[in-house]
Amino acid sequence: MPEGHESLPLNSVRAFAVIAREKSVTRAAVVLGIAQSAVSRHLAVLEDYLGSKLVERRGRNSELTAFGRLFATAVSEPLDTIYFTAQRMKRRQTDLNRILVRTSLPTFASTLLIPNIQAFSTEAGGAVVDVVTTLSQPTSADNFDVLITRDLALAEPSDRWVLLNEDLVCVGSPRQVAGKEIDIVTRVPIVSITSRPDTLPTWLRGMDIRQEDIKLGARYDHHYLALPAIAHGRSLLVTPEVLVRDLIKQGLLEIVKGTRTPSGMQYHAHAVDRSQNLDLARMFCRWLVRLCKEDQPKSKLLGAASK
């Protein structure tokens, strides 16, 4: 920096870029992992440096001023480039046989991925697989090697594998549905999942059943919360078949005959190019394809990798 020039507060620039992206000081604090008051101080420092107001508060949201929008446009792309380059060049000497898997599918992770992950670790010579779940849109600044998702887009370069085409089924405890015909779905309450509000309407359309012809039961946030209740209760659940595959094998759940229908959704795995353990990340994705293939009908489209 030339003598006599005041140093640009780079941490404050970074904080402002996150405020601009999140449209909220509160959410920016969560993303940055610092207190909201610290984000506000960064904003004040930058506004003082620039001599202009960058943000106006609108209730819980933060709205950029005209100058703020101009500055955000100017700095956001260079910052993303810096973070992306740093991620690619960063050396994790202690994590040479470790990957971080990020997924937007918590029930898929808890019912299929995590119970089987030791098999991959053994196959990969003791590799450690860290798993995190989040519904937020991934960015190039996020630290992960593999993304498993059904509905999130990935804007950065990656190898992609199709894991499965989602089928929906209606399940219940064996004592509830064994030997019963499909009309049981109009006589027994069906629980609903608030995190997948599309599941039940999609299944009803596929089965040509009207909403008014069924009885709605309890509501749960996620499938993994509902599964124990269904296995030990008197209600039914419409769910992606892959989530209950192991429970069916164990005899804890049973599919109501004739209730399988496609949802039109696909599950994907991405190994991001910036991963420091790209070979291990690709190996994990190929293993996941094999895991999802087990006991699936041969007619399903599975596992082609593409750029």
UniProtKB/TrEMBL annotation:
HTH lysR-type domain boundaries: 8-65
One function term, GO molecular function aspect: DNA-binding transcription factor activity
PROSITE patterns hit by this protein: HTH_LYSR (PS50931)
Database matches in InterPro entries: LysR-type_TF_proteobact-type, LysR_HTH_N, LysR_subst-bd, WH-like_DNA-bd_sf, WH_DNA-bd_sf
Keywords: DNA-binding, Transcription, Transcription regulation
Pfam families: HTH_1, LysR_substrate
Any one Gene Ontology BP term: DNA-templated transcription
Gene3D superfamilies in the record: Periplasmic binding protein-like II (3.40.190.10), Winged helix-like DNA-binding domain superfamily/Winged helix DNA-binding domain (1.10.10.10)
Family: Belongs to the LysR transcriptional regulatory family.
PANTHER family per the UniProt record, alphabetical: HTH-TYPE TRANSCRIPTIONAL REGULATOR, TRANSCRIPTIONAL REGULATOR-RELATED
Stated name of the protein: LysR family transcriptional regulator
Annotated source species: Mesorhizobium hungaricum
Lineage of source species: Bacteria, Pseudomonadati, Pseudomonadota, Alphaproteobacteria, Hyphomicrobiales
